[in-house]
Amino acid sequence: MAQPIEVIGGIDTRTDFHQAAVIDTVGRHLATEAFPTTPAGYRRLLEWLRSHGQVLVVGMEGTGSFGAELARYLHANQVSVIEVDRPDRRARRAAGKSDPVDAYAAATAVLSGRAKGTPKQRDGSVEAIRGLRVVRASAVKARTQTINQMKSLIITAPAAVREALRSLTTTELIRRLAASRPGADLTDPAAAVKLALKRLAKRYRHLSEEIADADADLHVLIARTAPGLLALPGVGTETAGQLLVTAGDNPDRLVSEASFAHLCAAAPVPASSGRTDRHRLNRGGDRQANRALHTIVLVRMRHDPRTRDYVARRTLEGLKTKDIFRCLKRFVAREVYHHVTSTFSSAPPTSPAT
To answer: What is the DSSP string of 262-288?
Structure first.
């Protein structure tokens, strides 16, 4: 009995359908077909792939967006998925652009070894954290817009309204406006402005409650997912959540703490020339994760005695502030890695900055 051939799949993901292609292990194009983005469509796609032979791996564009559910489905059915980046412009000009072409290109990228990144698995507690953080971030943004609108209205309000409110703190301003009685005559500009400010103050309070609820839910999830992470100096709910989301539900895809530092843009980048031997900050990687590390470093520089001692010592050695920040971010990334991954068995090393 003949053994089934081994094949590699490629998928170009879209909103309403996914274009799938299949090639053999020498790169020959075997077939291509489109499938709807429904549970039935996912089942048909996998059956179609397996009808051509033993599926070794599937290369897919958009595993974190349009292809998220399909990636989950394939993973649940023991099919390995590789994240494929979009081809560069030069390759697109040479090969053309269409959904079948992109699907074949995804499969070919896996076969050639150009694509070999393991995508995040979006099927665990970290995915739940990511969803709640989306809501929290939008509420924080809306609350900032609300207070900015309030202060803008106060600046242009009639003098009697402006003078009564301009010197108040944000907390006192919200309290006073939420309890105010603007009056019923909306043809009066002062009464209309007071009513607008009262409604904005109520919106600000509602958004603050929404943020507090999200923080409480996130704290429970983060403490359950990575118990030691919140105990680290300078790490709070927001920064811990972002670092967990960056690592994903399968942190074992990060082969070392150096790879996690590189992902967070905290790995040193050589910037030497001639007689100058130095490193600089990395401006690539996950910028939100880098911002989380930056926030942790700022908090430690203000409140952690050992970090303050480290900064003082490195400053006396002639190191610039931005270089000290780079070193501290690298230390924090190393420390965080051991709390967001599930593969280590020993206690994390103590860095000179903590």
So the answer is: HHTT-S-EE--BTTB--EE----S-HH
